[in-house]
Write a sequence for this structure.
């Protein structure tokens, strides 16, 4: 096993899976192009082949040197010495929540819309970043929501997702109507 | 040149609305560069759709100004938080952040202000003198084979910068190239890798990808530090460096201007490679190499001079060849296209007014860094006292809107958060985020020009390589790759 450890093997498996999936999917569009003899698959397949070589090279390097940085490398990201200890389950759960809360927010944009979901998202992120004073969360949520509404709706009139399910769509429609009335006053 | 510059200046300052856009760009670029987690790219992404309602010269000028001031602004977050505002500010953090830890943040930021302005102004002057002749030459000498060769050379260099090993550098660039193949192929319009999602037929837009890889992943890194209880608020000091301290580094400034300008011309690399090489040369020429990385002022001076010196130079491949030198210049291509313009040699004949307004704006923007930068920086230093738990949701909201409004697709927001998670995991394991982004940006350009070039030479590689510029660039890229291969088998760095 040399200096390979479990995380190196997981990393290698993930990269090999990417190579395999992209190669397998390339048969889905393996059609000739009349004006171009290499077709639509040549370029991605060359990239996939080079990625495979680089992945194998990376595994070989890790087998010899473990996680050590290479000598003479310019601008390498420093080893993470200030990261969390994920053996503690509460830290791991909190980090997972930080990673996936934005996802939930993104998935909700279509049905619920940004105008309704934004305050909950803002408050949730503050809480996940360690803020526990509910008054601070409330006030800052209102401030950030006001900045968002003021800048993107009132000033810039940006078209943002309004949701497509009731009552969320109705809420977005109400906000937009209020904005129209506000604009009419000027 | 001087008449054109004066005409450009008159057009810039002759209209109050244009002046307003210029001032907005100067302050906005500095501000967004200086807020941790977001960057000039975030601001540019948010503003991109709104440039459609501006005059073409105003839209392109706004982005050019944001490019100049944002490149400087990103140094502030690099120095204060160890979070580069953009990839080109990454080497600034090597010595800037240790200076902050020693209570010398004002000195580091002050040096960044002055050296960014000097590098940028020098570069703007050379750009004004050299871009037009280069454009004339490019019309006659540059075609798809040369552009592909330039992309190849740029990516070969990019793969050797920013990752912990050469292998990971290559993997970073290649995964960026692979992501760029999602969507329609640039020759036959055949759908590739849409995985059954119709929205993916349009490909992965680079704005949400860039926001995810840089801004969102930064927030996740900070979240991890917060969860570990290791997040440290920066020590803020207002003591700027003395004239004598800066004068002692005059040769470092001059060297970084040359390095920055040379690197800026390379498409796809631009200011990022410039900053890394400027820093690397400073280390190489220094008598006290061991002091670098521990809070040496010369480290900040070298990288900040070089990256701003590259901003003007990066406009040469953009304007003369239509090749973006980085993420923000790639967005500038989109601004051109929104107004039915195509950057490239012909733009000097079709829209000379636009070009000189942009040149003049870049010159004055770099000058503004010196004047407004000092005042604004002191304000920003205070703004950064805002606790990160309040900044994080604001940054994520801005990024969400920036990702969504470019195409009006919720899928782009999902892609942004996916890129954020991917960027966070790849950073932890030593991959190069700038490498991925450059691969993503240059992938389609490279494939399209390779295909066009092969069609042009009727698939005859002999004809392809008989073109002198093409063969020189391919040889240079191959040499870079071979050097990388040699380095790839070099032993690892011994732990200190």
């Amino acid at each position: 096993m040399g200096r390979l450890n479990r995380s190196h093997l997981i990393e290698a498996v993930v990269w090999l899976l990417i190579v395999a999936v992209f190669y397998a999917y390339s048969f889905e569009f393996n059609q000739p192009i009349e004006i171009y003899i290499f077709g639509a698959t040549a370029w991605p397949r060359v990239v996939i082949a080079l990625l495979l070589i680089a992945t194998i090279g990376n595994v070989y390097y890790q087998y010899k040197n473990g996680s050590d940085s290479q000598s003479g490398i310019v601008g390498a990201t420093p080893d993470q010495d200030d990261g969390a200890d994920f053996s503690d389950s509460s830290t791991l759960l909190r980090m997972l929540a930080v990673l996936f809360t934005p996802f939930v927010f993104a998935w909700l944009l279509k049905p619920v819309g940004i105008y309704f979901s934004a305050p909950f998202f803002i408050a949730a992120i503050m809480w996940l970043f360690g803020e526990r004073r509910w008054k601070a969360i409330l006030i800052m949520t209102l401030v950030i929501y006001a900045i968002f509404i003021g800048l993107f709706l009132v000033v810039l009139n940006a078209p943002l997702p309004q949701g497509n399910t009731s009552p969320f769509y109705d809420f977005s429609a109400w906000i937009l109507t209020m904005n129209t009335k506000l604009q009419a006053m000027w | 040149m001087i008449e054109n510059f004066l005409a450009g200046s008159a057009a810039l300052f002759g209209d109050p609305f244009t002046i307003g856009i210029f001032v907005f760009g100067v302050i906005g670029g500095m501000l967004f560069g200086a807020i941790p987690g977001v960057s000039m790219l975030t601001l540019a992404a948010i503003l991109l759709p709104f440039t459609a309602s501006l005059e073409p010269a105003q839209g392109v000028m706004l982005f050019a100004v944001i490019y100049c001031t944002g490149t400087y602004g990103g140094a502030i977050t690099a120095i204060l938080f160890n979070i580069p505002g953009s990839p080109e500010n990454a080497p600034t953090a090597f010595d800037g952040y240790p200076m902050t830890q020693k209570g010398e943040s004002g000195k580091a930021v002050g040096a960044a202000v002055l050296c960014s302005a000097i590098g940028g102004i020098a570069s703007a002057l050379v750009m004004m003198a050299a871009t037009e002749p280069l454009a004339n030459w490019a019309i006659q000498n540059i075609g798809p084979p040369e552009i592909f060769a330039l992309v190849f050379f740029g990516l070969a260099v990019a793969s050797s910068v920013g990752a912990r090993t050469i292998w990971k550098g290559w993997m970073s660039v290649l995964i960026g190239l692979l992501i760029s193949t999602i969507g329609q192929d640039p020759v036959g319009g055949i759908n590739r890798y849409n995985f059954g999602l119709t929205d993916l037929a349009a490909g992965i837009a680079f704005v949400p990808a860039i926001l995810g890889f840089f801004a969102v992943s930064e927030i996740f890194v900070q979240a991890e530090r917060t969860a570990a209880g290791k997040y440290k608020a920066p020590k803020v000091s207002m003591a700027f460096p003395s004239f004598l301290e800066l004068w002692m580094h005059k040769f470092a400034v001059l060297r970084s201007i040359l390095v920055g300008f040379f690197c800026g011309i390379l498409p796809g690399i631009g200011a990022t490679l410039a900053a890394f090489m400027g820093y690397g040369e400073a280390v190489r020429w220094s008598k006290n190499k061991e002091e670098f990385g521990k809070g040496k002022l010369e480290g900040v001076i070298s990288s900040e001079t070089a990256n701003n010196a590259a901003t003007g130079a990066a406009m040469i491949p953009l304007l003369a060849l239509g090749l973006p030198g980085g993420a923000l210049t790639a967005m500038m291509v989109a601004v051109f296209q929104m107004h039915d313009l195509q950057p490239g040699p012909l733009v000097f004949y079709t829209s000379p007014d636009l070009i000189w307004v942009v040149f003049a704006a870049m010159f004055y923007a770099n000058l503004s860094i010196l004047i407004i930068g000092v005042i604004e920086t002191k304000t920003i230093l205070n703004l950064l006292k805002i606790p990160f738990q309040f900044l994080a949701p604001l940054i994520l909201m801005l990024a969400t809107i920036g990702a969504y409004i470019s195409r009006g697709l919720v899928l782009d927001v999902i892609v942004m958060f996916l890129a954020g998670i991917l960027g966070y995991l790849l950073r932890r394991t030593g991959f190069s985020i700038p490498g991925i982004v450059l691969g993503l940006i240059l992938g389609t350009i490279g494939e399209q020009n390779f295909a066009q070039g092969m069609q042009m030479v009727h698939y005859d590689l002999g004809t392809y390589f008989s073109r002198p510029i093409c063969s020189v660039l391919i040889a240079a890229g191959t040499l870079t790759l071979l050097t990388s291969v040699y380095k790839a088998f070099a032993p690892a760095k011994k732990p200190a």
The mean pLDDT of chain B is 80. The first strand of chain B starts at residue 183 and ends at 184. Residues 2-487 of chain B form one domain.
